[in-house]
Amino acid sequence: MSAREEILNRLRKTHVAEQQAMPDVAGWFGAHRRSEDRVQRCARLRAALEAVHTEIHDVTHDNWSSVLLQVAVGKGLRQILIGAGTPHGAQLQACQTKALQLIPYEQPIDTWQDLLFDGVDASLTLARGAVAETGSLILWPTPSEPRLMSLVPSIHFVLLDEDTIHEDFYAAMTAESWSEGMPTNALLICGPSKTADIQQTLAYGAHGPKELVVLLRHADGRQA
Amino acid sequence: MNKVVHLHPMDDFKARSKAVLDNAGQRKNFRGAMDFLQAKRRAQFPDQDEMQGLRELGASIRRYSLAHLPRLLEQLEANLTANGVQVHWAQNGPEANAIALKIAQRVDAKRIIKGKSMVSEEVGFNHFMEAAGIEAFESDMGEYIVQLAGEAPSHIIMPAIHKTKQEIAQLFAEEIPGVAYTEDVDALIQIGRRVLRRKFAEADIGLSGVNFTVAETGTLCLVENEGNGRMCTTVPKVHIAITGIEKVVEKLEHVPPLLSLLTRSATGQAVTTYVNMISGPRRPDEKDGPQEVHLILLDNGRTQAYADDELRATLQCIRCGACMNHCPVYARIGGHAYGTTYPGPIGSIISPHMLGLDTTFPLAFASTLCGACSEVCPVKIPITDILVRLRNEAQARPETEEATLRGSGAARTLAASTAWGMWAQVYSKSGLYKLASWFMSRGRALSPSEQGAWTRSRTPLVPASKRLRDLMKDHKS
Ligand code: SF4
Fold first, then answer.
1. What value of ipTM does the predicted structure carry?
2. What is the pTM of this model?
3. Overall CATH class of domain A37-218
4. Which CATH topology does B70-302 take?
């Protein structure tokens, strides 16, 4: 008999009487929801992100690219990795300055991994949404904005639309029916990478980005 | 059961514990770390009602998952397979290692980079791979430090909790070429980052653990702060995940409550920096991610715990480490004294299934039964009840019906079982009890002044000169 059969047979031999019924997760979250409006959700997300060293800039559809370039130049960055063929990538390219090189992620990583690890300062990706409760950004890497963009460069810029902020993780996954089809990789990101493994002392910039910069994009005419 | 097996585990455990207790510096480190982690957790649960409600929900999710375990494992396998993930089953450590080695040999791997995985420690993965000529390199900062020092983790969440920054500074200066001594934690972390970035880029295989697996979507969830877990599961061409069979939940919606309980209980964080959900290898149109993803499902004694209605709760564990952070015994002796992969209260109740009760029973006795572990456990495992049960199992008559575990009865000695047999007789027959207590109170002068372990740090036990019943009689007359 295979290991699989042996293990399953051993488990099947035991009849478990307790807790046969499905736990009521919806009931719990329904009872504990705060029912916040857009402004309150933004505020909670901001507080949670700032608590973990995340830089947040309020932007609009018109000015986000110039704000980003300004911040990038201020940090002395030389390159930003952008997604290939994305509308926001194109928008950024349209107002590119000479001091900053925009590198589209065009080729499979296997051909240029060393360059990504050693020669790219920063990256920009679009968030799919966010979770106000914990300050988590939701990223679903795509063929045009692959997984390593949010991991390898030292500074990670994230463009987030305020209308995509959910109250909690459960609300996000149910509103968007995640269970009907998950991408190869889905991420929640809250702050730059960090560790407290040396004598419980918190240090940022462990293995992933050292800085996380969120461009919180408000709908036209709305104030931050 | 022979005598050598009877005596060794307890003696070794006591000797290791004593060595730590005699080391004032280490005791101070542990105390400080435990106070820190306890305060961080407390701050995350300001609302007692919310905490108790969420614990109840978390426990019911874990109990539900275990009640349906065989079905969920099959569903998980089917959905992972449909997603392109290869699923393997291992009954024990050697089988799990052999599966990983076969994959490594097929892709001609020389270097494996490892994310944090206690299951890989459980099966002795690193030693096995090194013996096969394959480098297995730890990338979690704590694990990296511990590996560099040639040690094992002393805590399941914070592997290098037993080390001071001075010790780590010394270690880096001695072991990493071109590194000068520095106690600056940021600088030390940047040194680690630099070394490990090369390792991620060069590795042929990334190995990781898993926090939850989701049956309905075929998803592996990994929770971390450093980003090394994401590196290990994204950069190398092959990703191998290894996990115990108990980690599965049915629905994706079962993850948020457990995730919240896990991060708040473990490190006192509302959420970790990264929650990494993997549902398949790189697709043809994608530009990065591993070409192959494998999941090794490990039994290693878990089915033994599963078969018992009381011990099954052990498998509810989400490995948050809160029980050890709040354990007065762990706080004093630290993780290494236990001599097992999983230390602290969870280690004391899970290790007997992995290693046999004959070598691990002393751990069940190393508890004051104060109940702190059960009180903080986010999935409400009745840890103290299970400890008492294991003590009884250790004293059970071997090869009888009362012995249900591998190694049951290992603590049983003729002297102890005779003494307790007599005690039971005396305490269940009132005539006998009267007679015995009369003799005890009259013969108190004969009480030995040396009473074994008891008198090593306490005054001898001497029966009262008057029995309670005599005092009552005097009082009435
Ligand atoms: S037994 Fe409970 S408290 Fe201990 S590690 Fe497991 S889940 Fe956490």
1. 0.97
2. 0.94
3. alpha beta
4. Rossmann fold (3.40.50)
